[in-house]
Amino acid sequence: MKAIILVAGASRRLLPYTAEVPKCLLEVGGKTILDYQLDAIEELGVTEVIIVTGYRREQVHEALAARAAGLHITPFVNHQFFDTNTAYSLALVREAFAGEQILYMNGDVLFTTQLLRRVQEAAAANPMAVEHKRCGDEEVKVIVNDGGRILEVSKELDPAASLGEFIGVARFDAAFTTPFADALDRVIAAGERTAYFERALDLLAADHPLHAIDVTDLPCIEIDFPEDLQKAREMARKFES
Fold first, then answer.
1. Closest CA to 215 of 139, 123, 115
2. How far apart are CA 177 and CA 172, in angstroms?
3. Residue ranges covered by each domain of the chain
4. What is the pLDDT of residue 241?
5. pLDDT tens-digit readout, 162-174
6. Nearest to residue 93, comparing CAs of 6, 211, 176, 16?
7. Element (H, E) at 201
């Protein structure tokens, strides 16, 4: 199993905090967001990590080089980070994950090791961490059937019909990652360079099982705005190893 983290974005909505520091290196409770994720990956025994960088990539690469040995981290660079999005970043590394089981995470999510373990150990195929709640326009939402299978995933879904928010942490199994990589390529070939990677998931949901895993009881937050950063810093005080 490999882990993949996307940290390429410029995070303009978090200015001025990200004017000199990439979002993943913002400190939350004495550690960077990226360190929380890498520590969780390491605790689960996953040793190979792929990270797609872009904005202020030199700082990210320096931070990775400064970590103690334990993880084999391979950085890839999205040089088009200003005018692309997560579908493009993930498509760049398709050769590194197609046909393999992966743990996937957006690089701007603060979560506990317990949450990542729940996703890693889930019995369902292709589990995606979902916080059950009433969403707004900003969140990536999911619609599921009675068995928890995801039927649709998108920001554009009707909040009233949605189970909750996909928080950007998932496990994609080996049988899924090749069609997933192909779907990402189709999204980019169609000119959707600014699409989120969930666009590819939505294309596949009818024919490939994706399952919502409830993580509502565990602390987690996607950090997009200054108020999110403040909430994350308050949340981090409650984290336990």
1. 115
2. 6
3. 2-123+168-197+220-236
4. 43
5. 999 999 999 999 9
6. 6
7. helix 198-204
Q: Per-residue pLDDT tens for 113-143?
A: 999 999 999 999 999 999 999 998 889 999 9
Backbone Cα Rg of the chain: 17
Map 110-123 to HEC letters.
Answer: EECHHHHHHHHHCC
Interhelix angle 33-43/113-121, nearest 10 degrees? 50
User: Is 2-123+168-197+220-236 a domain of CATH 3.90.550.10?
Assistant: yes
CA distance 124 to 63: 35
Block residue for tokens 């990536």: 140
CA distances in angstroms from 123 to 117, 127, 149, 173, listed in the order given: 12, 8, 13, 11
Let me know: does 84 contact 58? Beta carbons within 8 Å. Answer: no
Q: What is the pLDDT of residue 240?
A: 54
Q: What's CA 142's distance to the chain center, in Å?
A: 15
